[in-house]
Write a structure and sequence with these properties.
Layout (H helix, E strand, L loop, with lengths): L20 H5 L3 H10 L11 H26 L1 H6 L5 H14 L3 H4 L10 H22 L12 H21 L12
Helix pairs in contact: 3-5, 3-8, 5-7
Length: about 180
């Protein structure tokens, strides 16, 4: 009877080469380990990655709209009944558009980039985008309540707080340096 299990041939230990970590990775082994674990440092002027930045901006705008309408409905409940209230689909759609567009707008006006169109073409394009965005937000308010449900004040505020928490974690996870409410370092 064997007391120890025999290792299979394919799981043999690698042969030792006699090289130290300093020989393999250079003089500063701790710096090399930190670089491997944390990844390379991003240069100070580098752009944020597009999709995390779009997610952060979309969640931030969802937070703003949800909290704004939730507090407005809480302070003045008659506003929700008297006027055309803004529904959840309108807020989500507007936040998605803002999230997708806001990372691109600073890149359109970056003087260090080479642009396909002149500044006098890019400015009207951005203004046209803003007008179209506001017009779509206005038109979406007229959707039927089945497609665009209007939440009461507290669920709206809770959704705003949850999206604020989500945008905070997205910003921390991807170390975003640009964006709405993000100060440059």
């Amino acid at each position: 009877m064997r007391l120890f299990r025999q290792r299979s041939p394919k799981f043999k230990r690698p042969k030792k080469t006699g090289k130290t970590a300093r020989n393999l990775y250079g003089n500063d082994v701790n710096a090399r380990v930190k670089e491997i674990v944390e990844g390379p440092e991003r240069p100070a002027g580098a752009d944020d990655p597009y999709w995390p930045s779009a997610l952060y901006n979309g969640l931030t705008f969802f937070t703003i709209f949800s909290l704004m309408f939730g507090i407005m409905y809480l302070v003045s409940p008659a506003t929700q009944k008297a006027s055309q209230p803004v529904g959840l689909t309108s807020i989500i759609f507007s936040a998605v558009i803002a999230g997708l567009a806001l990372p691109m707008i600073p890149r359109l006006f970056d003087s260090k980039r080479e642009h396909k169109y002149s500044l006098w073409v890019r400015i009207p394009l951005v203004i046209l985008f803003m007008v179209a965005w506001l017009l779509l937000f206005y038109v979406m308010a007229f959707l039927p309540s089945i497609l665009n449900p209007v939440l009461t004040a507290w669920p709206q505020i809770i959704l705003g707080a949850l999206s604020a928490l989500g945008s905070y974690f997205v910003k921390r996870r991807w170390d975003l340096r640009q964006g709405f409410f993000t100060a440059s370092r």
